[in-house]
Design brief:
The chain has twelve helices and 19 strands. By secondary structure, it is of the alpha/beta class. It has three domains: 170 residues, 3-Layer(bba) Sandwich (FAD/NAD(P)-binding domain); 151 residues, Polyamine Oxidase, Chain A, domain 2 (Alpha-Beta Complex), CATH 3.90.660.20; 106 residues, no CATH class. Strands 1, 2, 9, 10, 11, 12, 13 and 19 form an eight-stranded mixed sheet that branches. Helix 3 runs antiparallel to helix 6. Bound molecules: flavin-adenine dinucleotide (FAD).
């Protein structure tokens, strides 16, 4: 059976839901593979524990998104001051590493400080490095010096990206990696903790329950959200999508928030070279290991980074640091993040056992602690790899899709490293451009009701 709808939206994550919400009522049909809305911003509740798909903390800077969240969920969020640590050389230091060297072995501090000073002098002499031309590895060395690069930037990012850092460009670093001044680095090296640096010095989190409150609020009142349907093919010429239940939907505009590589692989009628690009867009997936432990408090932090290769994970977070309601009384919860290439095999039981062993070695779990809950969730993709192919080809891919009436947006639609706020904003923007294209100055949109 084929039905027709002016706008079809693929994916009911934050980007897809936000797009639907900002279109006129009844103007869009949302198709979602999972049985519930939310995408990466879902939460699961089991055995008294509430877990998100790894830590999902809300940072709001954009006034329009901020206003929307306040209208949808008034008084629902608490503001937290970030408590992030780094575990390295057997000690915990404050985040960011580069601004809080105090507490590390003296030789390490010396190497990091002298490298930082040399990098400052070099920059004064030669000017700022050209971010557009450098690999991440070279950028890290030129920006922070050999020591900070060797002891944190390179090992941590190698673990996260699982790719030679010479192959990675720097398009994502400007907002995500804090750059302290020399004075701040010195303060931090001599024990004055440098706080408030980076994009997330404070963040919002629901006062009760998990982050799923956000997508659920966005979805409220949407008339056409079809859950449990996989989009199996897109015809860019006939302007149709075929779903796993055998039905076909016709569209005038298609908003896709599913991963771009998948979209390219299932779409016919695009310029001949585009489906081939699908196999060359690279990403890592993240194994998120949710653990419940029969001890009320594990660490004085919201999360801890682990740059060293002897630990299998790159980050461990503590949902119960955000609120007691996220675990049964007397218990604490952890999420453990481990990155893998998409074709790297893994054994679920081995991954959990290794994580628990590593947590014990790091002193986070104690002898006698009982792990009372465990679950592995695979986020695939999780982080797109900013390699040169992406930098070269992405603009042309998006142009060709737009020419065919397909708007590929959101974290994986745009194929970018971005936040929940960006996903909501992307939905607003694509809805606005579709309204404009339809002469929508006069079109009533749902949010205006
Ligand atoms: C490890 C990790 C930690 C993060 N932490 C934070 C954080 O602390 N703060 C923050 O702001 N952001 C964080 N993010 C980013 C945030 O999760 C995303 O930016 C945001 O949720 C993306 O929303 P989206 O709608 O673009 O994509 P998604 O949430 O991926 O939504 C896409 C939807 O499409 C559906 N779909 C896929 N394929 C098909 C198909 N074939 N047919 C039908 N449906 C399909 C999916 O099921 C999904 O529901 C994190 C991301 C990761 C990976």
């Amino acid at each position: 059976m084929s039905t027709s709808c002016p706008v079809v939206i693929l994916g009911a994550g934050l980007a897809g839901l936000s797009a639907a919400r900002h279109l006129p009522p009844g103007g869009a049909t949302v198709i979602e593979r999972e049985a519930e809305v939310g995408g990466l911003a879902r939460s699961h509740v089991e055995d008294g524990f509430t877990f998100d798909c790894t830590g999902h903390l809300l940072h709001l800077r954009d006034p329009a998104v901020q206003g929307l969240v306040e209208r949808l969920l008034p008084e629902a969020f608490a503001r937290h001051e970030r408590r992030a640590l780094i575990f390295s050389k057997g000690v915990l230091t404050a985040y960011p590493f580069q601004a809080n060297l105090h507490g590390l072995p003296v030789d390490v501090v010396k190497e990091c400080l002298s490298g930082f000073v040399e990098s400052q002098l070099r920059r004064e002499r030669d000017g700022e490095p050209d971010v557009d031309r450098l690999s991440f590895r070279d950028w890290a060395i030129l920006t922070f010096g050999e020591g900070i690069a060797r002891h944190f930037m390179i090992p941590y990012n190698s673990k996260l990206w699982r790719t030679d850092l010479e192959e990675i460009e720097c398009g994502w670093v400007s907002w995500s990696i804090p750059r302290p001044t020399l004075r701040e680095v010195l303060d931090g090296a001599f024990g004055r903790t440098v706080r408030g640096m980076g994009y997330n010095p404070t963040f919002l989190y629901p006062k009760r329950g998990g982050i799923r409150a956000l997508p659920e609020a966005l979805a409220r009142g949407l008339e056409e959200v079809r859950l449990g349907r996989d989009v199996v093919s897109v015809d860019a010429v006939a302007r149709t999508v075929r779903l796993s239940d055998g039905s076909t939907l016709a569209w005038e505009a298609l908003v896709s928030t599913i991963p771009l590589d998948r979209l390219l692989a299932i779409t016919t009628g695009l310029p001949a070279d585009l489906p081939g690009a699908a196999t060359r867009l690279r990403a890592v997936r993240v194994l998120n290991i949710s653990l419940g432990v029969d001890r009320a408090s594990i660490a004085p932090a919201h999360w801890i980074y682990f740059p060293e290769p002897e630990y299998s994970f790159y980050r461990v977070g503590f949902p119960t640091s955000l609120g007691d309601s996220l675990a049964p009384r007397g218990c604490a919860s952890l999420y453990v993040e481990r990155s893998l290439l998409r074709d790297e095999p893994f054994d679920e039981a081995e991954v959990v056992d290794r994580a628990v062993d590593d947590l014990r070695r790091a002193g986070l779990l104690w002898r006698g602690d009982r792990v009372v809950y465990r679950k592995v969730t695979v986020l695939d993709p999780a982080y797109v790899i900013y390699d040169r192919f992406r930098a070269r080809q992405l603009p042309a891919i998006h142009r060709a899709l737009r020419d065919a009436g397909i708007h590929s947006v959101g974290r994986f639609g745009a194929w970018e490293y971005s936040s929940m706020e960006s996903a909501i904003k992307a939905g607003m923007e694509v809805a606005s451009s579709l309204r404009d294209a339809a002469g929508g100055g006069t079109t009533r949109r749902r949010e205006a009701r």
